[in-house]
Structure formats: C-alpha cells, structure tokens
Design brief:
The longest helix has 20 residues. Helix 2 packs across helix 3 and helix 8 packs across helix 9. The protein has eleven helices and 15 strands. By secondary structure, it is of the alpha/beta class.
Amino acid sequence: MIVIDADAIDRVLDRAGMVEALRRGFREAVVTPVRHHHAMPRAGEDDAMLLLMPAWTDGRAGLDDDAVTGVKIVSVVPGNAKRGLASVVGSYVLMSGVSGQPLSVLDGTRLTLWRTAGASALAADFLARPDARRLVMIGAGALAEHLIEGHTAIRPIEEVAIWNRSPDKAAALAARFADRPFRVRAVADPEAAIRAADVVSTATMSTTPIVRGDWLKPGVHVDLVGGYTPAMREADDAAIARARVFVDTREGATHEAGDVTQPLASGVLTPERIVGDLPELCRGTVAGRGGADEITLFKSVGTALEDLVAARLVHRAVADR
C-alpha cells in the first residue's frame, strides 16, 4: 500500500489530465451511496463530525483492472482551532475493485481541491465560450487558486480579476500568479469585474448572493462552487432566471445547494429548467452551450465519483514512477 501526501499529489497531477479523467469517469458505471454523517459529542467543546463518502465501480456488468473502491474520510473538529490545528482533516482510502486489497491512502484535502477545480473546468469546457478571455474569481481561499488554475487550463484566459471580502487575501492570491502569461489583479469592485467577465467562478461560504443577474453580460458562464448547504447562496434569483442551469449531479444539487434549493422552493427555478448534469454532458445526452450570447450557470456540490476517479488517477501515476 502506498501513502501519498499532498506534495506527491501536486507532483503527479496536471489540470488537463484531471479534466479528461473526470470526463471519462462520468461516463463510467459508478455507485455513489448517500454520504454518512456521524456526530461525535465532546465534553467542553463543540461536537465533532465524521463524514464517510464511499464509491465503487459497479461490478454487475463485470470488473476489469480499472475497477476500484474508495472512501473519503473527513473529520470536522471545531475544537482544533484552540489546538492550532486545521478544523477539517481528510484522507482517502483506495482499494482494488476486484480483490478489495488496499492500494493507497491519499491526502484527502488536497485531492478534494484538485477534483473540485477539475469538475468546474470540465463543466466550463462544455459551457463557457471557446474564446473566453476574462475570468473573475470571487473568493480567495485555498480552492480559489485551484479554480483559477483549472479555468486557465481549458480556456485562453488573458485576465483574471480576484475579489474577496478581505482585500489583503485577494492581493496575496494575485501575487502567487505573478509569473503567469495572463494578468492577475485584485479588485475592489465586484460589480464592475463581473460585468466585464466571460467566466465568473465563486468559492465562498456566503449566505447572501454576491453575483447579481443584472450584472451578467450575454455569453458569460457562471461557476458556483462555494455554497454546499441549503442556507448558502452565491447568486441571486435574477442570475438563476437568466441562465441555462446545469449541475454536477441532480441528486446532490437539488438537496444540498442553496443556489438550487431556494429558487426551486420559490418557483424561480423548476426541475425541468435544470438542463443537465455532468454525467449527461459527458455522455452526450444533453448539449452544452447553445450560442455565443447564452448565459450558462453551473452549480456543484461535489460527488464521491470525483474523489474515486481522482484517487485512481493519482495512484496510477505514483505507482508507475
């Protein structure tokens, strides 16, 4: 069994390879049960939480060497703040889908960043204009850097504008891209940046919309990544109403994403107006962008399939070295 840390994941992965692995993965038959949530009460501090996210190659049609089983194990420990440790810690265990033998244990946090950005880039490959030049990044956390890397890998981006509620964080993120062929800058006015954008990507935990529908120009693609509970919201009703809406998975987005559940509850969005999800896009049963002036919107909450595919890709790359 191989232990694969965050640095090793960074060494063996590239953005285009991740996108193509996910494209193939969404065409596969993969079982993704409902994720498990287990509260772990603690004396003297907030309860901890254990999350288990399993997935496996569906063996009912037969198994080959590509068959794998995996589970992401995430511990959420609010009390770690006073210990000087991260509150969210993740690991991924990958096993043979044929024999069940363990293959590798991977850094789950880094794996999640790569696969999440990869899914957004995959969606943008179907939904963003081929000539998209201007990217706006809303948020400046760990995921924002990966989203910028993902989008610039699949579109000819020339300019990236970063907005964050903390301007210093936006400036620090922009500085990390100083040696890139595209221009990156922190901005103080999200409205002006979004109005000029070809692609808008968001990675926040906001409960009030940041992206306004009347700011969106014809042809823009909106990539909503941050909100992962029904209470979170990154785009307003006008944005949802103006766009052709796509999701990573219908089951996940319609139950977990406030940017979908709230408009569904109010009637701004109907289930029929969710045009498609990533499996449908990748299998060709749903068409992506339909015209140069069309506004498209993609909402993701993540799926265990992405973790499984990403872990398999990393394991093979490390094992082959």
